[in-house]
Amino acid sequence: MRIFAEQFSDIRLGQNKNFGNLSIIPIFGELKFRRQDIKTFDTLSSLGLTEASEISESGSVNTIRVLNKSESYLAIFDNDIIIGAKQNRVSKSTVLIPPHEAINLPVYCVERGRWSYDSNRSFRKSEQSLSPLIREKKMMMMKSGRTDSIQNEVWNDVDNLSYKLNAFSSTDSFTEVVGSRDYKDENLLLEFIQQTNALGYLVATGEKIFGELFYDEPTCRQQSLKSVKSWLADANDSENVGCIMKGSIKEDLINAEWHHVKSIGVETTYEASGVKQGQSVLLQGSFVHGLLYV
Fold this sequence. Notes:
By secondary structure, the protein is α+β, with helices and mostly antiparallel strands. The protein has one domain (3-293). 28% of the residues lie in helices and 34% in strands. It contains 9 helices and 18 strands. It has helices at 3-7, 41-46, 132-143, 150-165, 174-179, 186-195, 217-225, 228-235, 246-255; strands at residues 8-13, 17-19, 22-31, 38-40, 50-54, 63-68, 73-76, 80-84, 89-91, 95-97, 102-109, 123-129, 200-205, 208-214, 258-261, 268-272, 278-283, 286-293. The longest helix has 16 residues, at 150-165. It is globular and about 50 Å long. The relative contact order is 0.20.
């Protein structure tokens, strides 16, 4: 199925902007149906309407417990990092949790050097999100069935990023590594996203180009702002500014084929077909989130 073509009545691309070695184009569009009943982990966490904790006193590296105490569906995206408890984690994929329900959430560790409670025994939202390069590798390995190797690969990628950025963390924390630096044009990029009412973005970090879309503009803004440091970290060692060919990539998004895969919560999850990497999520047939590497 062609999710973007079926879910959007219109997709329009804005003007290309360069920030350091990163190139970005806002995506505007009209969804055929816009959901009003979804809130992000960050939003509900700020309101005290979600709880995330280890599944037991001893804990489990690749599973945590998340409770939705709100009247809305709780969205946790595949690059959402939550910090605290025994170690920082990132969600395996995009998940939707119904109102007043809890699930055991599959996660990966992004802080290898700690396995003890910090000042807070619960998890809380992070100011950073997982980098595009690690997201793509995670999706690639899930697609090929190499799920048992993903955790070690995530740890290796955090180590490589630490070396590339010359940024040290005593607990090998992804958020500390990425968050410790100020990047060229970072404030300009933050200002651009704040002022842009987009549903998504095309982003080029050197050779990697991806498009990401959300169910509404405020969620796109919230998720994109927390991605800025990881976007710029990936683009940091690129020799050339990323280049986006608008016409061909718009067609790639619209014509991309997707197939159904197993979900974690009540969402319906799709994986990009063929050689491309990506994930799209619907709720009761309506668009929530889509990410495609083009």
